[in-house]
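Q: what sequence does this backbone want?
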């Protein structure tokens, strides 16, 4: 599969991008990612999140990486929205990273597939063959 720039997208890269998208999609609400109007009134906007210096640097580097890859596709208003979304995503990422895990910790969810099997009735005797 090739994209607009002619670069071939492998199955592994596609799976990694899909996993990243699905992981980050659960961190931000739909209203923040897809606002109802393209130009909300200034008094209705939420205040920008207060970020630490490392958080600001990470959000800025995320924005710069997206602009480096896809900058020609965005106009100035979309770039401003993108910068805002990168800043709004950072507190959620910080909360997820703040959760302490050790290598020996068990997963929170065990996936146990349900397999239905035919149960033999205890009342029936094994069939005998007639010769």
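A:
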């Amino acid at each position: 599969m090739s994209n607009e720039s002619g670069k071939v997208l492998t199955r592994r890269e596609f799976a990694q991008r899909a996993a990243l998208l699905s992981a980050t999609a659960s961190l931000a609400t739909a209203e923040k990612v897809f606002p109802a109007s393209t130009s909300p009134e200034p008094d209705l906007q939420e205040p920008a999140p207060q970020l630490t210096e490392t958080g600001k640097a990470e959000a800025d580097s995320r924005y710069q990486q997206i602009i480096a890859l896809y900058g020609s596709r965005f106009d100035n208003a979309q770039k401003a929205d993108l910068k805002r979304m990168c800043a709004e995503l950072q507190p959620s990422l910080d909360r997820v990273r703040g959760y302490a895990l050790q290598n020996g910790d068990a997963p929170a969810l065990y996936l146990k597939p349900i397999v239905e099997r035919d149960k033999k009735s205890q009342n029936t005797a094994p069939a005998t063959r007639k010769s």
